[in-house]
Amino acid sequence: MNIHPTAIVSKKAELAGDIEVGAFSIVGDFVRIGRGCKIGSHCLVEGNTSIGDNCRIFSGAVIGSQPQDLKYKGEKSFLEIGNNNIIREYCTFNIGTGEGGKTVVGNDNLFMAYSHVAHDCKVGNDCVLANNGTLAGHVTIDDGAVVGGLVAIHQFVRMGTLSIVGGCSKVVQDIPPYSTCDGHPARVYGLNLVGLRRHKFSRESIAQLNQAFKILFNSGLTPKHALDKIKEQLKPSREISILTDFVKSSQRGISRSCRAGE
């Protein structure tokens, strides 16, 4: 264990034997930190926070602080961070709100400088939040999604798997899986072709998703009728099921096409 002499680490914290804690950082009473983690200088890790293995937290990050929620009255709530995450300078991650509330971050994510994960968010695996990406409370980010720089996401919004939102966008409705979105508010521009190809989707799968997107976003049909048409015209597949199930389960409604209203 390599703890800088100026760091303050609670004797109640549970730390793996091979972690590093940099100068002037503080680790609180109820924190658990896994193997191979490196905490930079001037970091604060507090609250009921658990961090998995091989995470890197850079200077100035504040991890496990109280939620920015006026309803919070000091109830016992949690932050869980998985393995192999990179959390860059001055990021802020809050614990959940309400008794037993929980903010959960998966594995292999990159959080660039100043990004914010609010109370009760759920971030999957292999996601990227670019600089100043901001998640309000109860936001869900599915696996492989990319949040552009200076993007603000409204509370209770969900981003589907392998979707991407362009920088400076305002996100107030759910972002469909596999989509590229941008704007104020964010609108669907089409498939995230770069992401699909990087994840080795077959040409057939991409063609099927392209047809589904045309029906869902460019046909002028209501979401219900578009889903019925997709079911009638396209053969079943895992990707089509993920897309249609997402639309059916959306609580805030899905983002509209950039061509809406033309």
Description:
By secondary structure, the chain is an alpha/beta fold. The protein has 2 domains: 2-138, UDP N-Acetylglucosamine Acyltransferase, domain 1 (3 Solenoid); 197-249, Udp N-acetylglucosamine O-acyltransferase, Domain 2. It is built from 4 helices and 28 strands. It has helices at 193-198, 203-218, 223-233, 238-249; strands at residues 2-3, 8-9, 14-15, 20-21, 26-27, 32-33, 38-39, 44-45, 48-51, 56-57, 62-65, 78-81, 86-87, 92-94, 102-105, 110-111, 116-117, 122-123, 128-129, 134-135, 140-141, 146-147, 152-153, 158-159, 164-165, 170-171, 179-183, 186-191. The strands form 3 sheets. An 11-stranded mixed sheet has the order 1-4-7-10-13-16-19-22-25-27-28. A 9-stranded parallel sheet has the order 2-5-8-11-14-17-20-23-26, with no helix packed on it. Helix 2 (203-218) runs antiparallel to helix 3 (223-233). The protein is elongated and about 65 Å long. It starts with a strand and ends in a 13-residue tail after the last helix.
